[in-house]
Amino acid sequence: MLDGLTGADAWPWVVLVACAGVTYSARWLGVMLSGRVNAGDEIFKWVNCVAWAMLGALVARLILLPSGPLATVPLSTRVICAALAFASYRLIWRNALFGIAVGVGAIMAFTATGFKLL
Amino acid sequence: MGAADDASPTAGFRAGLRVGFGIQGVIMVGTCLSYGALARETGMGVLYSAATTGFMWALPAQIVFAELFAGGASLLAILIAVGVTNARFTPMAVALMPVIRGWGPRKLAFLAVHFVAVTPWALTMRDAPAMPVPQRMPFWLGIGLVNFIGGTTATAAGNMMAVAFPTYVSLGLVFLVIAYWSILFTDVPERYAQFAVGIGALLGPLLFLATPEWSLLLGGLIAGTAAYFLNRRLEERDARRTAAATTVGGGEDA
């Protein structure tokens, strides 16, 4: 278990603090660069586009090419469950909780029963 | 909703707390529970896994970190992977700050930026522009505070409960955030942001096949720039049409 604080066990904490430093620098740089940017600027729009595009790429990758436990679920099931979540939100009530419940419920039901739609 | 009528910063903070204790908070806690369980599988203890959440506050990078570290990768390799995965925070912070600043000391931004994560960011970018300026920073801090406490606690709890989860429950928890993001990202009001999400979603997986480690960064830059220019062309076209319609209309009147 990586929980120690002394001796040889200090190394995991060194690695963690270094990673936290790298992560915070990306945020810090954002604050520094944002100083001259205003919400109506063209550059703000462009940066916003880049940020949203990264998130679009991230969620599509997580659905289509996941790593970890989701990789064991068939592609068709993942796509269908994501589409179900999206559609139930869009078509019925625009209630996020409902959409999420449908998507998550579907993937749990598919996995628990081993049922494959396509 | 009293908060919308009351322009005070306190009301903004309370609105943020409400969001943190709402669906958004449930998602955050659910995600961190599943991360805690995953971290346990890679050999992390309760305190250490909670610390990765608190110090990094970046779930995709934490997962990368856990996988690499458990696999015995070198410090440099881990740092590069975490840095590249988290490069998205720079454009996200650049976009967020002009929206939320305008309340409190300027240095508050350096604390506030630690709370930047996908879910509260997307939600704040969507909802904060409609709020009075002095409410936005307190709103952000309110969400961030609840998320932070809930997220670190949930990571520890997930780590402790890991063995008790059947497969389909941990899968459901992982899928929770994906389902929420698909809903949240497709609900952005600005046209340019809609283009960006759409093009990014098309390009991201393709680039991931070509270059897994750089795909997020490259995809964001290419798809984001494409979306920006596409939107600009459409704006110019709309402007020309409006101008033409006005001229024609004016001619008919005369």
Principal-axes geometry of chain A comes out as flat
Secondary structure class of chain A reads mainly alpha
Given as residue ranges, the uncertain stretches of chain B (5+ residues, pLDDT < 50) are none
Rg calc of chain A: 21 Å
Write the H/E string of chain A, N to C.
HHHH
Which secondary-structure class do the elements of chain B indicate? mainly alpha
* Count of helical regions of chain B: 13
Tell me the total number of β-strands of chain B.
Answer: 0
Q: How does this structure look, described?
A:
The complex is a heterodimer of chains A (118) and B (254). Chain A has 118 residues and is mainly α. Chain A has a domain at 66-118. Chain A is 70% helix and 0% strand. Chain A has 4 helices and no strands. Chain A has helices at residues 10-34, 42-64, 75-91, 96-113. In chain A, helix 3 packs antiparallel against helix 4 (96-113). The longest helix of chain A has 25 residues, at 10-34. Chain A starts with 9 loop residues before the first helix and ends in a 5-residue tail after the last helix. The model of chain A has no long low-confidence stretch (mean pLDDT 85). With 254 residues, chain B is mainly α. Chain B contains 13 helices and no strands. The mean pLDDT of chain B is 87. In chain B, helix 5 (59-70) runs antiparallel to helix 6 (75-85). Chain B has helices at residues 2-5, 9-20, 23-41, 46-56, 59-70, 75-85, 89-100, 108-112, 118-127, 133-161, 167-185, 191-210, 215-253. Chain B is globular. The longest helix of chain B is centred in the C-terminal third of the chain and has 39 residues, at 215-253. In chain B, 80% of the residues lie in helices and 0% in strands. Chain B folds into 2 domains: 2-189, no CATH class; 191-254. Classes of the chains: A mainly alpha (118), B mainly alpha (254). The interface between A and B is large, with 73 and 102 residues.
